[in-house]
Amino acid sequence: MPRNAVVLLSGGLDSTTVLAIAKREGFEINAMTFRYGQRHQIEIESAQRIAAQARVAQHVIVDIDLRMFGGSALTANLDVPKGRDVSEMGKGVPITYVPARNTVFLSFALAWAETLKSEDIFIGVNALDYSGYPDCRPEYIEAYQRMANLATREGVEGRQNLRIRTPLIDLSKADIIRRGLSLDVDYGMTSTCYDPSADGRACRECDACQLRIKGFAANGMEDPAQ
Amino acid sequence: MPRNAVVLLSGGLDSTTVLAIAKREGFEINAMTFRYGQRHQIEIESAQRIAAQARVAQHVIVDIDLRMFGGSALTANLDVPKGRDVSEMGKGVPITYVPARNTVFLSFALAWAETLKSEDIFIGVNALDYSGYPDCRPEYIEAYQRMANLATREGVEGRQNLRIRTPLIDLSKADIIRRGLSLDVDYGMTSTCYDPSADGRACRECDACQLRIKGFAANGMEDPAQ
What we know:
five-stranded parallel β-sheet; alpha/beta; globular; 226 residues; homodimer; Rossmann fold
């Protein structure tokens, strides 16, 4: 019987690549997507299409409202930065950072993993292109895994088998795309833009769009979703 | 200016005592309560009355649905154990355990604390009477605090000041009640029962009721909420 994995799936380029990696490893996929008050809700529709195409075992959309905490351009009515130089992006915590977002997401994933008796939670964090996000750093992920192994029934019973799997953590965007293409990921289905138009078109100017375009260019391609 | 604290307030005996302790320490209180699909929703009304009486700065009710994960008598349609011997309660993980509940609750508290620039999150966990719950143990709380200090903007900037405050962690129920009475906590306002009647009366037989009744008896009192 295939082992269960919980995969955090935003509908973006990174998490879609992670889903393909987890499938290739032979896991039965339990995909989890959050409707958290993000401006770019188009990504939820992308996640649904991607999960269906990947024939996941289950796909849940979890409703939570992180807007109450404010403080992020992704959930509040703040301007998403446009046209920043890519070399500037790793410096400081960006305004698109949502307070404790990955901590909240991983905690729901942990609850589900415990119920499914799954020992693998996949998340598409990337420390290279998003070094400004505190909750994308390897030391954060390691601390989360340590905590998670104490948080559950298995922790009480002395088993510490839960792993937070971050296959993209030290890859460049170009490397991620190369990996995904080798796994036949259809990047035309993914949504990455922080500030898409009402009909879902990417802005091509926010940090996320720029990093994508550059990553495809490094692979000698146009971004198929743009 | 008083410092901000986030206080997880369920409306039960423990968290109401914690709220009084945080107030006595001089904090401005930001109380957070979860509507998570629990059977005992009466506790949310109790939390609202308790927060109002304590004149908290803010009280938020966060809607999340932990029922999707199943596996707990507190959220699913399973029988809450009644009439168990108190000496049996610390053995094994009880059926009233909700997968990763404290991890999810603390993660929302962390997001709020980051937004409020608060360095103190209070939670009424207790390792003595609830030793069967993995996420009430000191080693879990320490691991959570370590993770939380890497999860936020402050973590990136090298500050590690966030504290998960657990003033009840090694107290008996009788000690908790004694402490609360010294702080003028009105325990008649609190709801603890895992399986109250439709009009909000406690069952007096579940683990939570029994521990309460015993704790008040040790202080020479009847439980004012029963």
